[in-house]
Design a protein that fits this description.
10 helices; mainly alpha; about 230 residues; binds ligand 9ND
């Protein structure tokens, strides 16, 4: 039985990533707002654009704390952020959705999201992903590392120096693998399962522009930042 242990520098890396992730958490206020009231499709769309805009800003702050990120080629830094922002937002949404809340609240949240204005055809893939994240019961450190790994995906469009990104992503993958073995000793496939979720996440990337433009209302307005990050307008 291979003895897995976290090295000193891996402990330091974990602390940096976990602290950055906790510092730049989107407060649970989106879930709280949704639980407070039933909003119209227009109000929900506005809430989404506001939340998503602030989430991109939060993501940039988190990314700046990833060791080595700021020494990457500047165009590549932008390409990585642009390429991962939507996935990070869905990953964050899945984590918010999976949080155990007082009984009945999780059902209300799901119902509010189902009736928020999103077209019917996207409900299944989106909730399948949320539920597949939920059953994993990830700890904070795993969520933080998975977000960093998503950002440091070398084969995003327009990334020039893929090797440089791989060199940053590898230590994160190695650390996450060890963490999974230590946190979930009874689930040897857990690490592979986590990475499988990243593949599922990419398929949501594919749907997101259409999810927005098909929101049940007329005249979809986006912030300039969202036009940049999401392939809309
Ligand atoms: O705001 C949001 N997600 C967010 C969270 C964190 C940070 C940034 C964005 C939106 C809501 C959805 C209902 C209307 C209001 C916005 N949201 C989504 C979602 C995001 C993008 C598209 Cl295209 C479709 C759905 N899935 C969610 C799951 C949750 F548990 C949930 F609570 C909020 C969720």
């Amino acid at each position: 039985k291979e003895k897995v242990e976290i090295t000193k520098e891996q402990q330091a890396l974990m602390k940096v990533i976990a602290d950055a992730y906790n510092r730049h958490q989107i407060p649970q206020d989106v879930a709280k707002k949704l639980l407070q009231d039933q909003y119209s499709a227009e109000e929900n769309f506005l809430l989404l654009t506001e939340m998503a805009t602030s989430q991109v800003q939060v993501l940039v702050e988190f990314t700046k704390n990833i060791p080595g990120f700021l020494s990457l080629n500047h165009e590549d830094q932008i390409a990585l952020l642009k390429g991962s922002a939507v996935e990070a937002m869905f990953l964050r949404s899945a984590q918010v959705f999976s949080k155990k809340m007082p009984n009945g609240h999780n059902e209300v949240l799901e119902d509010r999201i189902r009736r928020s204005g999103i077209s019917e055809e996207f409900m299944t893939p989106m909730f399948n992903f949320y539920k597949s994240i939920g059953v994993l019961h990830m700890v904070q450190e795993e969520q933080a590392l998975l977000t960093a790994i998503t950002i440091l995906t070398p084969d995003r469009p327009y990334v020039k120096d893929q090797q440089a990104v791989e060199r940053l992503q590898e230590p994160m993958l190695d650390l996450l693998r060890k963490l999974c073995v230590l946190q979930h000793p009874q689930k040897p496939q857990y690490f592979a399962c986590l990475l499988g979720r990243l593949t599922e996440l990419r398929t949501l990337n594919y749907y997101h522009a259409e999810m927005l433009t098909s929101w049940r209302m007329n005249d979809h307005k986006f912030t300039p930042l969202l036009c940049e990050i999401w392939d809309v307008e």
